[in-house]
Design goal:
Blueprint: E1 6-12, E2 15-21, H1 24-31, H2 38-46, E3 52-58, H3 63-76, E4 80-85, E5 88-92, H4 98-109, E6 117-120, H5 126-130, E7 134-138, H6 143-148, E8 151-153, H7 160-169
Parallel strand pairs: 6-7, 7-8
Antiparallel strand pairs: 1-2, 2-3, 3-5, 4-5
């Protein structure tokens, strides 16, 4: 478990890089080396930098379009690269995702997938939804997420997650 999480926020050509790691000096040293081009910036992450645990790329309009399929295909072989919202693309160590975190939690506390309820709306939720028998994509989720989930909840504008939770707690669902 990390005691000190180090976060650096960098703005390069209207794209914001959020880097986080567990070693202040090494993370800072490598963070400031990010060049002005997005693909070159990713090369820093793809190296053997022990202090750097992940990177989130933010763009005010659409990070997925700005980063591009080429970036995702190229770096997806070396790390977990996933769209996590309209404005965000997350990069982390291979095997590090919400699904692996949920699996660890389930194993640690003896919770089965049949005893697990999960909600998602974007690509970074797919692995987690697969670990829960009671998995819900909200109506406004991406199609890939709806396909991965076992159920669809009303959209966030209709308080879909709250509706499902109230139904579970009243015994109407699950």
């Amino acid at each position: 478990m990390m005691k000190n999480m180090v976060i650096y926020l960098l703005a390069v050509n209207f794209i914001t890089f959020l880097l986080y790691g567990d070693d202040k000096s090494r993370a800072r040293r490598h963070a400031w080396r990010i060049p002005e081009k997005v693909l070159m910036g990713a090369a820093v992450i793809g190296g053997s930098i022990g202090a750097l645990l992940g990177m989130s790329i933010f763009h005010h309009n659409c990070a997925e379009d700005v980063v591009g399929d080429e970036f995702i295909k190229r770096w997806g072989k070396k790390m977990n690269v996933v769209v996590s919202g309209k404005c965000w693309v997350d990069c982390a160590n291979k095997g590090a995702n919400k699904g692996s975190a949920l699996r660890h939690f389930q194993e640690e506390y003896g919770i089965t997938p049949d005893e697990t309820l999960a909600f998602g709306d974007n690509l970074n939720d797919i692995e987690m939804l697969k670990r829960a028998s009671h998995s819900f994509a909200v109506e406004n989720a991406r199609d890939e997420v709806k396909e991965a989930a076992n159920f669809v909840a009303p959209s966030y504008k209709e308080d879909g997650v709250l509706q499902v939770l109230k139904a579970v707690l009243s015994g109407e669902l699950c």
